[in-house]
Design the sequence.
């Protein structure tokens, strides 16, 4: 087509010749209209970087009347011309802009970060924190646009009494931005120079033997799933989610062992838990016999999903425990069962290293040089420890039963 000034009237009058053709503007070099073989008319800008030796490149501005008109398209072409005059490639700049707007939009980037997380416990914490507390506030804001003030706003909006939630949110976001810097998606993290929220006061609640017996008994009335979960938490001392999401493929009755894969462990370290007689009895009741299924969730709900009603089950136990004790128990949490077992291991004379191994806890005996050279798995010692713990619990239960049977004076 012969070059002429591109106007709305001119473009409206263009028709297809059956092949792709270009109409170039006589006023602005590089500004043109492409008419496809099918008659589609689109505004384009053609340019060259690096002088005569540079290659010719073309960027599409948009389709005529959908929504571009000739004047708007000319203004965009003029913007590209100014960018090219500065030695900048508008095609690359447009791609970067799209990447920032789409790939680096916080919701999409949060999903990418969640997918990169290893360990089921960590991934669940990251997912819940980002989806419930961060994405709703940051919305579609692009990662490079997020500043310290945005992070502060997110943290300030969290319930003030939930110090642990604030620290978790801080840790998750700091890790996300550090990951983004490592990938080259942003230059610097907004967390540089930010202070970590104050630590959560350490809990020291340890159940007494009397409380242990009451909770064990109350668990019998806490439902077919939550009751056994609580008893396994007490018998094994493992973490709540690790017990709740137990799979039959992980436990072997003939070996009296529970092999927890690293993907399900909070610290991403595979773990072997000896199953003492109490734990085996609990699992026998769940399996309705001594022949355990080969696979499938141990605590499967009627909806075929994992058990999640911990709060509701805990209320049932507290209500029943109040009846048994004839008074409310001092406030306690499921995690206190783990601390209670660890404390009683000390009472039973179990070595500190064995206790750490039994809890799958990365402590001072499993870091640094010890982590490199200490390869003993403590399995035999753990078997003895869990056996002793079961014997202690049996004695506690027997004592509680005798006390309940004694006639009142």
Sequence:
């Amino acid at each position: 087509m012969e070059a002429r000034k591109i106007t709305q009237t001119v473009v409206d009058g263009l028709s297809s010749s059956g092949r792709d053709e270009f109409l170039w503007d006589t006023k602005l070099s590089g500004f043109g209209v492409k008419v496809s073989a099918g008659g589609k008319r689109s505004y384009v800008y053609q340019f060259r970087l690096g002088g005569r030796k540079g290659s010719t490149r073309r960027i599409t501005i948009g389709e005529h009347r959908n929504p571009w008109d000739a004047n708007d398209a000319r203004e965009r072409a003029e913007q590209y011309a100014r960018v090219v005059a500065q030695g900048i490639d508008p095609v690359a700049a447009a791609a970067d802009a799209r990447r920032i707007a789409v790939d680096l939009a916080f919701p999409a980037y949060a999903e990418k970060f969640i997918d990169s997380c290893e360990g089921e416990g960590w991934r669940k914490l990251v997912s819940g924190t980002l989806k419930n507390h961060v994405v709703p506030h940051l919305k579609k804001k692009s990662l490079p646009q997020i500043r310290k003030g945005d992070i502060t706003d997110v943290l300030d909006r969290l319930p003030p009494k939930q110090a642990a939630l604030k620290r978790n949110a801080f840790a998750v976001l700091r890790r996300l931005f550090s990951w983004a810097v490592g990938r080259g998606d942003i230059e610097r993290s907004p967390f540089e120079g930010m202070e970590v929220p104050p630590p959560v006061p350490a809990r020291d609640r340890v159940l007494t033997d009397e409380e242990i017996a009451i909770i064990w008994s109350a668990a019998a009335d806490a439902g077919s799933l939550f009751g056994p979960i609580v008893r396994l938490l007490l018998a094994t001392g493992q973490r709540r989610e690790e017990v709740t999401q137990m799979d039959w493929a992980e436990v072997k009755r003939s070996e009296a062992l529970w092999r927890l894969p690293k993907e399900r462990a909070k610290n991403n370290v595979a773990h072997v838990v000896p199953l003492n007689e109490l734990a085996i009895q609990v699992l026998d009741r769940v399996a309705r016999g001594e022949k355990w299924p080969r696979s499938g969730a141990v605590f499967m709900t009627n909806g075929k999903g994992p058990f999640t009603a911990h709060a509701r089950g805990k209320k049932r136990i507290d209500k029943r425990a109040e009846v048994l004790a004839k008074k409310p128990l001092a406030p306690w949490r499921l995690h206190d069962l783990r601390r209670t077992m660890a404390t009683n291991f000390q009472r039973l004379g179990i070595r500190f290293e064995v206790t750490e191994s039994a809890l799958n806890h990365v402590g001072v005996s499993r870091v640094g040089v010890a982590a490199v050279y200490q390869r003993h798995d403590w399995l035999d010692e753990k078997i003895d420890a869990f056996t002793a713990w079961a014997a202690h619990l049996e004695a506690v239960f027997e004592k509680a039963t005798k006390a309940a049977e004694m006639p009142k004076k």
